[in-house]
Each structure stands twice: as C-alpha cells, then as structure tokens.
C-alpha cells in the first residue's frame, strides 16, 4: 500500500480544495484489518470509500467484515479481485450476493486464471 498521502501529493492538494469531494480506495493505506484501512480512508473522505479486495483472500475477509458491520459511508463500493482462480466466478457471485445491500457498485474487470492471455 502506498502509505501516507501528504499535502504535496495530488490527492492531498485535491483534499485541501474540498475534503469530501473526493473518494478514496483502501488500497492506498497500510493496515492489517478492514476496520484499520477503512478508518484511515474515512479520515480522507467520509463520503466515498472503495473497499479494495484485490485478492481472493481479501474478498473473503471483506465479506466477513461487512457481515459484522457496515461503515456509515454514503457511497461504499467494492473493488473485486481482478484475477480469479478457476471456478472463482461462482465464489465472487456468492460474495457479491451476500453484501449487495451494503455496498454500491462492484468495480473490477474480472479475469479467470484459465482465460488469461499472456
């Protein structure tokens, strides 16, 4: 993860203009749990946060996190894993079904590991 977003960064300068005008993805922050990275993300934007579940294990843990609590963020979206193992599409569909009422659109272009072109 990218770590701190300083005032001199592009996001830092945009935030200075209008703190809530910009959403932020959790992948920008270090943390060992969803509550930790969501907490860091909401310090930058309380209006829009993307839960970046870029690996299948992240997807499983974000579903568990959302099962236990839903952050009070007006626009909460999910960035699903970009590459799924064979048969992973069914797992993704089941996860999205479970959390659909808690998040806005799911983002990500999905690619099965069996359909990748090298």
Quote the average pLDDT: 75
- Helix/strand-derived class? alpha/beta
What is the end-to-end distance?
26 Å
Number of helices: 4
Assembly of the depicted chains = single chain
Question: What does this entry look like structurally?
Answer:
- There is one protein chain.
- With 118 residues, the protein is an alpha/beta fold.
- The protein has one domain (10-112).
- 36% of the residues lie in helices and 15% in strands.
- The chain has helices at residues 10-17, 34-42, 56-68, 88-99, and strands at residues 24-25, 48-52, 75-79, 83-84, 106-107, 111-112.
- Helix 3 (56-68) runs parallel beside helix 4 (88-99).
- The radius of gyration is 15 Å and the shape is globular.
- It starts with 9 loop residues before the first helix and ends in a 6-residue tail after the last strand.
- The relative contact order is 0.14.
Q: What's this model, at a glance?
A:
This protein is of the alpha/beta class and 118 residues long. The chain contains four helices and six strands; from the N terminus they run αβαβαββαββ. A four-stranded parallel beta sheet has the order 1-2-3-5, with helices on one face. Strands 4-6 form a two-stranded parallel sheet.
Write a concise keyword list for the protein shown above.
globular; disordered C terminus
Task: Record the SSE blueprint.
Layout: H1 10-17, E1 24-25, H2 34-42, E2 48-52, H3 56-68, E3 75-79, E4 83-84, H4 88-99, E5 106-107, E6 111-112
Parallel strand pairs: 1-2, 2-3, 3-5, 4-6
